[in-house]
Write a structure and sequence with these properties.
The protein has about 220 residues and is an alpha+beta fold. It is about 25% helix and about 30% strand.
Length: about 220
């Protein structure tokens, strides 16, 4: 979710209830530092309850969130109970981690759970280096009407996701070809959609489903 002109938050893991995300949105709108936002919502007071009655896993310890704002502040939170939960569920060994950084005018948070060890580092490194794969959004997937230099942010995000896929990293539940679900979403300052891409892959890497909203009004 985003607060136009302020910051953006991405939630995964056991995604928090609407009331928790609403609390985060309010804090973000008040220019609260990302770390303070996460410190506030990742508590039993704001995010009470367990995964199920009598379960040992508190909801707030099963969340994963990343925040980046427009002035270079970032923060990430990976709940400490994600790892033992996945062990109980019998999943393959995996990593639950997050990483933040800045490059040029961009600040970012990369995070992953139930992923291979190199997934998050590849996301971060590729985003920072930009065009690491030499890929072109237009040529590879979006059609000739979109130039690769229309929006550097879109290209960096695209390359980061594709680098994970090409290196067969990503969700450890999809060993045949790494990550099996991917999406990119970039918004204008007023929160209108600028670019959206959504894909589902079958085993072996065949594209099952794709939806795309093209770039609008420049980069």
């Amino acid at each position: 979710m985003s607060v136009p002109g302020k910051s953006v938050l991405h939630a995964q893991g056991l995604v928090a209830a609407a009331s928790v995300l609403d609390k985060a949105r309010t804090l973000m709108a008040e220019d609260t530092l990302p770390q303070m936002v996460l410190d506030t919502i990742a508590t039993p007071e704001v995010d009470p309850g367990d995964l199920a009655d009598g379960a040992p896993f508190a909801n707030y310890r099963l969340r994963q969130c990343g925040i980046a704002d427009l002035v270079g502040n970032t923060a990430g939170y990976t709940g400490e109970d994600l790892d033992p939960l996945y062990e109980v569920l019998g999943n393959q060994p995996s990593f639950q981690t997050d990483q933040q950084g800045t490059v040029g005018n961009y600040s970012y948070s990369a995070q992953g759970n139930v992923v291979s060890e190199q997934t998050v580092p590849i996301l971060a490194l590729t985003f920072e280096q930009g065009l690491l794969l030499g890929s072109n959004v237009a040529a590879d997937d979006l059609g000739n009407d979109v130039a690769a230099d229309d929006c550097d942010l879109v290209q960096r995000l695209w390359d980061a996701v594709m680098a994970v896929y090409e290196n067969k990293e990503g969700d450890t539940r999809c060993p045949e070809h790494g990550a099996a679900v991917a999406f990119l979403n970039v918004e204008h300052e007023n929160s209108d959609a600028f670019f959206h891409w959504d894909a589902r892959y079958a085993k072996g890497g065949a594209l099952l489903k794709r939806s795309m909203l093209p770039l609008r009004n420049g980069g």
